[in-house]
Structures are given as C-alpha cells and as structure tokens.
Specification:
Blueprint (H helix, E strand, L loop, with lengths): L9 E8 L8 E6 L27 H11 L5 E5 L9 H10 L3 E6 L4 H9 L5 E5 L7 H5 L5 H12 L5 E7 L8 H6 L8 E5 L14
Parallel strand pairs: 2-3, 3-4, 4-5, 5-6, 6-7
Antiparallel strand pairs: 1-2
Length: 212
C-alpha cells in the first residue's frame, strides 16, 4: 500500500500562518470531508471527501515544504473539514511530529475516541474545539443530528488533557436567540480559554445566511 493511501485526503495547504496556532508561526493543512453540515460553514468546499484521487493537494509537496521549513516554523495546524473522521489522522500526526513540529488540531468534538487515541500517543500539542450552539439546539447549528454525549465527552477530554487548548464559537447572529450565548458559554469548563469568532456571511454554506 502506498504510504499516502493511509493519510487523510487534503483539500488545501497554506505554508504559513500567524493566526491559527497561538504563539507560533505555522503551516496549515485542510483535510477534506466533514460529518457536519453547519449552515454558516465558510469552508464548505471541503465538506465532501474525494472518491479516489487522494485529495487536491499531494502529500509529497506538503512534506517537502515542511522539511525545508523545519526550524523556521513552529507548528502545523490540522483543520478541515473535520480531521478526526479519518482513521489515518494518527499516521499524519506521526509524520509531522517526526519532522520536529508541534501539532495543533482543530475539531468539532464529535469523535472523542480519536481524541483519546491522539492524546494517548502524544501526537497533538494543542487542541481547539468548536462549540457550534447551545446543546439543546445543536442540530440546528450543525445541520445534522449530533450525539450530545460525544460532544460533552470531548469537552471533558480536552479540558482535562493538560495541553494548551481553547474552545471557540462563531457568533452567527441570525441563528441566535436570547440566552443562547450564555448557554453556549456554560459548556466551557472552568479555567478553559473561550474565544468568539466573527461570522463571515458572504461565504456561508446556506445561501439564506449570505450577505451580498
């Protein structure tokens, strides 16, 4: 089997970012495929997993760039899409760690078993989890039925991991009702960082949320 066959399909690669890994210059990998359909998603071009071509970005190029920039960049961010839906995510993290990089994972928190595996193998150094909406309305914000117990489990895993982490929410005002902000914030464990992100309506998956 080709080594790349076991890796998550890549939908994009950004060789340099100062805004995605707190305190570190980093590279940014976008995995293709997601198990949610958030109506406000701005990366909706990554929702589907390519059938057979292995993704839009060749790993040979990605690893060549990362090897060349080792010692210059401080980390690699794996985002999506949703990286944790891919069984090959640990293989990707291993490969990046072997190049000497710290790894930051962006996740929607729906795959706590993958989080546990990555933490057990010490394959990630920072975790950011999106809290889409208040728990009782989560399906409206995620666009699909979500297992609430999995979300709560992931929150607990991340908060108790001992790793740098943050929880974050995109404030989609057209979807919010009175009290929703407070209910979302209440999901964040005491002592865990929590940030609010600006909604970009022009890039939303749902045309009804776009502002032209």
């Amino acid at each position: 089997m080709n080594f790349e066959d076991s890796l998550p399909p890549l939908g994009g690669f950004q060789p340099f970012t100062l805004s995605d890994y707190p305190g570190r210059p980093a590279a940014l990998l976008f995995t293709s495929g997601c198990n949610l359909r958030c109506p406000f998603c701005h990366n909706w071009g990554l929702l589907e997993t390519p059938d057979a071509d292995g993704g839009r970005v060749p790993y040979e190029h990605v690893f060549a760039v990362l090897a060349e920039r080792a010692g210059k960049l401080g980390g690699v961010v794996i985002t999506g899409g949703e990286p944790t839906i891919h069984p090959g995510l640990p293989v990707l993290c291993h490969r990046i760690k072997d190049l000497g990089y710290a790894v930051k994972l962006d996740t929607n928190g729906t795959r706590p078993s993958m989080l546990r595996s990555l933490l057990a193998e010490k394959l990630i150094d920072y975790v950011a989890m999106d809290l889409k909406g208040p728990l009782e309305r989560y399906d409206e914000f995620s666009g699909i039925s979500v297992e609430r117990t999995a979300l709560l489990e992931s929150i607990g895993i991340i908060a108790g991991s001992g790793l740098p982490h943050r929880f974050r929410t995109t404030l989609v005002e057209p979807l919010l009702r009175p009290g929703d902000r407070e209910r979302i914030a209440a999901l964040v464990p005491e002592g865990s960082p929590y940030v609010l992100q600006r909604f970009e309506p022009s890039r939303a998956l749902d045309p009804a949320l776009r502002v032209l």
